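<amino_acid_chain>
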Amino acid sequence: MKQINVDVAVIGGGTAGLGAYRAAKAHTPKVVMIEGGPYGTTCARVGCMPSKLLIAAAESVHQIEKAPGFGVHPQGEIRINGREVMDRVKRERDRFVGFVLEGVDEIPAEDKIQGYAKFIDDHTLVVDDHTEIKADRIVIATGSRPAYPAVWNELGDRLIINDDVFEWDDLPDSVAVFGPGVIGLELGQALHRLGVQVKVFGHGGKVGPLTDPEVMRYATKAFQQEFYLDPNVRIESMKRPDGQDKVEIQFINHDDELETFNASYVLAATGRRPNVDKIGLENTSAELDERGVPTADHYTLQTSASHIFIAGDASNQIPLLHEAADQARIAGDNAGRFPDIRAGLRRSSISAVFSDPQIAMVGETYNQLTKRLGQCGCFATGEVSFENQGRSRVMLRNKGVLHVYAEQGTGRFLGAEMMGPNAEHLAHLLAWAHQSQMTISEMLDMPFYHPVIEEGVRTALRDVNARLHLGPEMIKHCLDCGPGC
């Protein structure tokens, strides 16, 4: 077995692994990156990029269907060619993956070790059966994988995860989506708009990442008006009939009646779990949480074993690409400069669901605030509905609601949850304000053009300012702001 000694070993070659490798390399030349699967990152191969390609195709169909609302009537029947849809998805997906691979190719061959790593002790890794690595410091960046009940494996090739969707050559007739979270909502709605018969099932009543009950109720109703969604379904049976390429699902529908749905595929979108269960963490001194994930300092990404760091989806913090990139820089930098540990910049949280209307969250969530401040009534909520908001109505995109949260006394902006048009852009404005620790009054001093969707943000800010007793009562029709604001 080959034996090597390095200053830093990075386990994983995805977004977090690549970032950690580069950050550590800035401090020492003796860095290796270990990867057992294909390079290319989850985002580029099976995550954010291919899903947005599918969503873009679905949005183009939806715009045609909405055209009569403007008095524009497309001629003839809308024809969706599933093979052409999936061909573009895969071609563009491969292009994005290619960009990542170009970066990987620039890494010296001796720094890349192919295989799966496992801890033998705090400083020793064995890669498959060919290489033993003695490392002074180690960064765990092993990513995550879909999680679903093991019994579902009995469905065979009719059970799929989001990775499988982007290998289709054509669109199927029907799909049952289990899990109305980010992945389930995005893919479920997109497939529905592309002509696939879709039913989305959940357990526990949650929709997307939302925690604000009113925003969640609005989102549930909005989605249910377009496709079948039951966030707390009662499944009576789910089986694959012998010799048939379908799954028979019996469930209690919204009318409290037993219904049967025959699906070409069951898409498991029930969550993800960190890939840390097969890397031999039991052979280290690192403390693990209840899910078997090493606990780590939020600002340094250092575990209880001082020379071991963790980053990205494996850290069980926020499984988003921009978070993985930030964590990678912090963990890799600290592993490279060890023992001179530095606290890294952790930005204000921001997340988005690319459904229609979009869902977005910024800063502290409603649940976090109610746990921290709710008992004393120390925060207030401002609201705006986009149903009568001027610019939203002009574009026939007038669905949604925005809640903003602010601290009593100081007036500081604390966070927001929303469903609405252009929520991805509204969330960025609010995230910048949150990271700048702005007050509601300071945010209201910022410029707002007319007519734009962002004026809805101002309405919500004025509402919460009045509830903080820091500003005037809300004016129902503010002509100073222009019509429809």
About this structure: The chain is about 30% helix and 25% strand. The first strand starts at residue 2 and ends at 11. The chain has a mean pLDDT of 94. The domain at 350-481 is CATH 3.30.390.30 (Enolase-like; domain 1).
